[in-house]
């Protein structure tokens, strides 16, 4: 005799949930993560320099005869940088990284044209959008996380994109539709998941507005 097991379908395979309360809305939290590492604080810089000097003090001497050909340009450059490091070890106000950077600059000036090398261009950490305070550009505040906020017509307050939920769609589908309607379909984004990451309810009892937020 065959036994049939009836398994109740979950929300992933069930028919779309019918939401009768039109005051329930779906919202999207769209973020751009930091593009570069943030600047170290003065305390972090002092700590890293202390650790670097401590490790250097306990390290063994580099065998230059093994790594460099005697009298070569590479050996002379290494000795130039090593002298800068030794001076920084004696001066608590100078970090090893600052001393090494200054040594490299002075070496390049004194030996310009001695070696042919491809110079790397160091980009600025502040962009043109930062200088112009262009808050609509993503090429700004590269050390911070940016969030998309919109201002609905007729409203003076900024908010995350949000809109009402249709009675024939899932919650995450309503969030996708809302983002497309308010910001366009050409945005290169994706949802982190199909479950809301937050819930917001207005304190006013008359409005009864409930907003489910999705991370994208």
TrEMBL record:
Annotated family: Belongs to the mitochondrion-specific ribosomal protein mL46 family.
The alphabetized UniProt keywords are: Mitochondrion, Ribonucleoprotein, Ribosomal protein, Transit peptide
Q: Just give the chief location class.
A: mitochondrion
The residues forming a coiled coil are: none
Family annotation (InterPro entries): NUDIX_hydrolase-like_dom_sf, Ribosomal_mL46, Ribosomal_mL46_N, Ribosomal_mL46_NUDIX
Q: What is the lineage of its organism?
A: Eukaryota, Fungi, Fungi incertae sedis, Mucoromycota, Mucoromycotina
Q: What is this protein called?
A: Large ribosomal subunit protein mL46
The molecular function terms in GO held by this entry are: structural constituent of ribosome
Residues in domain Large ribosomal subunit protein mL46 N-terminal? 23-130
């Amino acid at each position: 005799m065959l036994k049939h097991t009836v398994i109740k379908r979950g929300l992933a395979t069930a028919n779309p949930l019918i939401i009768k309360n039109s005051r329930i809305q779906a919202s999207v939290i769209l973020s751009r993560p930091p593009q570069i590492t943030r600047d170290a604080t003065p305390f972090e810089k002092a700590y890293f320099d202390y650790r670097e000097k401590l490790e250097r003090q306990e390290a063994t001497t580099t065998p230059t005869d093994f790594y460099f050909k005697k009298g070569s340009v590479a050996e002379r450059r290494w000795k130039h940088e090593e002298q800068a490091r030794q001076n920084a070890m004696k001066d608590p106000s100078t970090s090893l990284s600052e001393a090494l950077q200054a040594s490299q600059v002075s070496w390049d000036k004194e030996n310009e044209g001695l070696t042919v090398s491809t110079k790397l261009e160091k980009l600025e950490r502040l962009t043109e959008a930062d200088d112009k305070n262009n808050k609509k550009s993503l090429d700004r505040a590269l050390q911070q996380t940016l969030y998309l906020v919109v201002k609905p017509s007729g409203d003076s307050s900024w908010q995350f994109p949000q809109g009402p939920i249709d009675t024939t769609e899932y919650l995450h589908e309503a969030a996708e539709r809302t983002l497309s309607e308010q910001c366009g379909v050409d945005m290169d984004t994706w949802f982190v998941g199909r479950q809301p990451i937050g819930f917001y309810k207005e304190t006013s009892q008359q409005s009864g507005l409930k907003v489910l937020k999705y991370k994208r």
